[in-house]
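haha ok so turns out i had the wrong file open the whole time. this is the CORRECT one, sorry everyone. sequence first:
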Amino acid sequence: MPRYDVLIVGAGIAGPALAHGLSTLPRAKKPRIALLERSLAEPDRIVGELLQPGGVIALRKLGLESCFEGIDAIPTRGYCVLDGGKSVHIPYPGGYEGRSFHHGRFIMSLRGAARRAEGVDLIEATATDLIEEAGRVVGVKTTKKTGETELKEEYRADIVIIADGCFSNFRSTVMGRAVAKPVTKSQFCGAVLEDVTLPIPNHGTVALIKGSGPVLMYQISKHDTRILIDIKQPLPADLKSHILNRVVPQLPSSLHTAIHTALDKDRLRRMPNSFLPPVAQGTSGTKAGAILLGDAWNMRHPLTGGGMTVALSDVVLLRSLLGQVDDWSNWRNIQKMLNNWHWQRKPLASTVNILSVALYDLFGADDEYLAVLRTGCFKYFERGGECINGPVSLLSGIAPSPLLLASHFFSVAFYSIWVMFMHPRLVSAPNEKPIYAVARPTEYPMLLVKSVGAFWTACVVFGPLLWSELRWWSPDDSRARNKVLFQSALAIGVVAISVTWTLQQAL
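then structure:
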């Protein structure tokens, strides 16, 4: 029966990166690592195709930057946001770059790096069950088909790391009574557009669609551009007609022919957009011997493309912390390490998690108060300067700071209120010549009521997301928890500062 130091289930993004990273640890004895994957064929998915600059930085720290070579990866330098006939350019600051690519090609490149790493065995097999002894996970049972024969094997290790993705088969088993359920608000419907030019080349495009979720577009190879159309639950009966009749007319006309061609040529593929808060691991309620990693543990809305960045950053930190543990078979030491990992990852992971869902709620506005915030958010970006650099630094993983996120989020909220009072708005009927006018003093009482509703909506969006990042603790987490609670209290204070700063800028 094969015996390893570390057993990793899942060779998507996090699994191969961790296997390679652990193989390079400066230890007296090189660890033996088994990396299991049910199929080593190139995967074909419509998400996981844009890596933010923060993810590129993490990949470089792991010595895996060469994985971009030979896969026709495209440099990404920021975003273009479209709202009706208007657009705003949101570049990454400081010359930072991300990368976009075909998901399968990048996965195969990561697997190749893991396969070449010293002490790593890349094994094609399906993990079916966890092996437990004395209440601790010590390995996995696997099956593999060879022709007509089904081969059953067991693999054992000091640590079992589960990185089998958003549809994890082992999440509930590992987390036990502490498990959280993924929440799915919408689905991405994806296709590939051939030989199109986006509004700003080498930039992701986010189109805000009235009556529907946002549309993402980014180039993934020389000739291919991914389009992801967010459709809220429940999905319409005729999905293709819904997209052609309600979504496509609101996109740039230069893309219409390519979209029609793509929808006629291939079937629409779907992927759920789920949110799963990170629950503390290594507590009394979870399984000893096993660790969840990647989407098996923590998910956020893919609107901001932060999933791979969080996963790779988690791998960087987990590798470093495991390197400080001498004996991986000592679960008490691993528990302390997991507690440190849980809180040390918070600045980046919490920032990306909260921003992804909050921005989706704003961009997919479906009530009048969210619509106010969405309009204010777009006009906030139009101001340029720090109103762009700050948010995009947060989104891209360059500036992992919940305090900065709170500052900009509530600055958007108060600026949205200012826009209602002071910016011209369309007052003419739909079929008449467009006429814009600033609100009259007689409208102020109604706008004040609307302002309260908009601010309360901003709190309702941001508050539960912040709480979801803080509330999953165990009794022995008090020291780290108090540190994060203190930062959260500061975040509330930032709101008051944001009011003054926003009004000063507006005036």
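The chain has a mean pLDDT of 92.
again sry for the mixup
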